[in-house]
Design brief:
alpha+beta, CBS-domain, three-stranded mixed β-sheet, two-stranded antiparallel ribbon
Length: 155
């Protein structure tokens, strides 16, 4: 079993959060997906309060004929998921993964003192886990790293 490094959300979360407004049209949402290449966005109301989350999956559901929702959806608030599962900056990566898997989520808004301060995604976690440790030099492969540490017999 692999152990997660002792990393807190605040160390790897994205602090400049791109949000969408619940009253924005689905065309505006499509443009945000094209512009940012994100899997989803926190949704806010006119006062800036978090009201939901919208993902690519939510957007794609409107194109499925068996969803009655597709007949009436015109704004983000028509397809967003609410209420939102959130976390705090003090969560560890292990705790974040537990929440993500428990709720089948790819991204989580990060709140501190009732304010949206960041977002963390599965991509952020994978990127951090695959990054070399600061004191390590990047290796071309794990085998190259191991080969340097192994005593070989010279003939």
């Amino acid at each position: 079993m692999h152990r997660l490094p002792r990393i807190k959300v605040e160390q790897i979360m994205t602090k400049k959060v791109v949000t969408v407004n619940e009253d924005d049209s689905l065309e505006e949402l499509a443009e945000k997906f094209r512009e940012h290449n994100f899997h989803g966005f926190p949704v806010i109301d006119k006062e800036g309060k978090l009201t939901g989350i919208v993902t690519e999956k939510d957007f794609l559901k409107i194109f499925r004929s068996e969803h009655l929702q597709s007949l009436f959806a015109s704004q983000i608030k028509d397809i967003m998921v609410s209420p939102v599962v959130t976390i705090t900056p003090e969560y560890s990566l292990g705790e974040v993964l537990d929440v993500m898997f428990e709720h089948a989520l790819r991204l989580l808004p990060v709140f501190h003192e009732e304010k949206l301060v960041g977002i963390i995604t599965q991509r952020d976690i994978v990127t951090r886990l695959l990054a070399p440790e600061p004191e390590e030099k990047p290796q071309s492969s794990i085998f190259a790293s191991l080969a340097k540490k192994m005593p070989f017999r010279k003939k």
